Queue: 4 jobs
Job 1
Amino acid sequence: MPTRKQRRKQQKERRHEYEFVYVDDEGREVEVDPAELKAERASKSAATGRSSRRQPAPRARKIVQPPSFQRVLKRGLLFAPVMYVTLSLIGAGKKLTIPGRLLQTAMLLAFFLPFSYVMDRLAWRTYQRRLGNPPDDSKS
């Protein structure tokens, strides 16, 4: 489907009667036959291998990596400071001391890391199923 800009351009081309001319070797303007123009446009589209309608480019699939504890630990290192700051900013954080907040952050990470690994594994198995590879439960 053409975009709004493309539709406006097409409508504008239909609205105006263009007079196509070219200048010959002696400097005279010579009119171009409309049938000649259509044949030229058709030959250009045939030469490029495209029809008048463009096909959308196929979407590239995101490659899902197999689950690994190393990647999960890196993700945990990124989220640990966020969890600590969140605990400090919400109301319960004012009642907790710094060691209390650290302990609470460690407890959140204890829940977050296995959950993150399970989600990675689920995404990997779904990706493998889409590719037609049966998931091998003995490896993970």
Job 2
Amino acid sequence: MSKEKIPTTPAILALKAQKGDFTLHTYSYEERGGTKVSAQKLGVDEHSVIKTLIMEDETGKPLIILMHGDKEVSTKSLARIIGVKSVSPCNPAVAEKHTGHKVGGTSPFGTRKALPVYMEKTIPDLPEIFINAGGRGLLARMPTTELIRILKPTPVSVAI
């Protein structure tokens, strides 16, 4: 990791409070670059870069879904599994209000509100992951077991 100053984000503070086992990795953020760009810049497989997506049900109740960088979420499957009529991505301003993180820097750690967390069931098959640490261009590398220990996400099968 380079010597640049890394901001302390609510996500990093939450990870430290949980005595999380993680290292921080920075890259030059690109608007709309997503996991493809972060994986390329860090030289890792996009499948191991986990997206943090903020969604809401038909009543506006927010939730987090964690997904492999190279996959999409079937919102129909997710809605059926969690027992709601529909699930859709939150408007970026609404997502920021729920999490306190800017879109592009959304982390499941240190969110403003406690939100239910769902995770694609194949994520634990990876020995380690890269996940946003609460800032654009800032990822935390951690064993997948740490993600599960800290967040206790509900596994779901919704990848497409």
Job 3
Amino acid sequence: MWRRALLGMLASIVLAAAWPVSTGHAACPERPACKGCGCKGGPGYRATGGHCVGFRELDKICGNPPTRCMFENAPGTGENRASALPARPAPPSPPN
């Protein structure tokens, strides 16, 4: 019986020692809401039809380089291109 009580006390001491000590909460900076193409992680280009262009259709609609679309320069645009597009298979090697 006393072993169970001792184990309970030890467990509470370990938990209390491992609990992070907070010295206060860091304040998040106030920023305006993100508006425009690229706010949700896209490349940040708007097509002539008025819609935001995604990574998959960027070359087809805007060209390469994307000169047929307007770049809206939303902060952080284009950072997730590698994860948004599926990996392309390697081209077949030429026969020897």
Job 4
Amino acid sequence: MTRTLAPQPLTADAFAPFGDVLDAGGSPDRLINQGLCGRFHDRARLDFGAGGRAGISIFDARPRALPYRLEMVERHPEGSQAFLPMHQNPFMVIVAPDTADGPGTPLAFVTDGAQGINFHRNIWHGVLTPLASPGRFAVIDRIGTTANLEEYWFETPWEVRGR
């Protein structure tokens, strides 16, 4: 038995309780480089906690397809985690609110192909889920010596189906 979710387009307002949408929408905050480059300034709240530092890694994930079976979510209690696609393909983002019993009902979003995301610290989220190849992302997250991963396996999985 599974429960179903329908993905929705990723918007800054809908995603705000879980993190930041990283995009270059609207007008730039200022022009730099002799007026030839628009700077969309300070788009993510990066948070790496005590005893950690910011690191940039490259992830290369295998694409997934809908329907997608969601069995597990994870969170990072020691720091935020930002994903910047190194391609122009939409990817799926799954998050869940925190409850007294663990993660609540998940929400699924699909990016528009030009958006990245930043999960705030301690937010339940699904694993990296590209919907096409390549699945390569620059990831900015906490590098440190203490554990920064907690997993939760759903007793009854969820199935994300197309809209």
